[in-house]
From TrEMBL:
Any one annotated GO CC term: membrane
Organism of derivation: Lentilactobacillus otakiensis DSM 19908 = JCM 15040
Pfam families associated with the record: TM2
UniProt lineage: Bacteria, Bacillati, Bacillota, Bacilli, Lactobacillales
Name assigned to this protein: TM2 domain-containing protein
Domain of life assignment: Bacteria
Amino acid sequence: MNNDYFVSQLTTEEMMLVNSEVEKRQKSPAVAYLLALFAGFVGGHRYYMGKTGSAVAMTLITVLTLGLGIGITGIWALVDLFLINGWLQEDLKTIESEAAQTIFGRRKLKESAPEQVGDDQNGHDQIIEDVVNEDQKD
């Protein structure tokens, strides 16, 4: 389903949990750009952004050509400088979607078994408590 649907169905407290999860798990733009500038020729920024396949390709091009491939991977890294912002936005949307779906799914599960939850605002308080406890374990 659409991310906007899940987000629109969340209460204020649940949205605060989603925002907290996004803040905790988001990638740093400064780190991504610094890696691209200083380790871009071996794909350091791509490893950081989770694009492991192309990062390995950049590393192999540089290593297997005994450094002669730096020209190719350097241009590749230069192009990536313009793509990093989009990757960061995509990462934020993914984290937000996962967190919203998790909270929404737990709420639906709790609502389907109300006798286990009690009368605490349809289980919302218990869901928030469960998510906070789970976050503290990490």
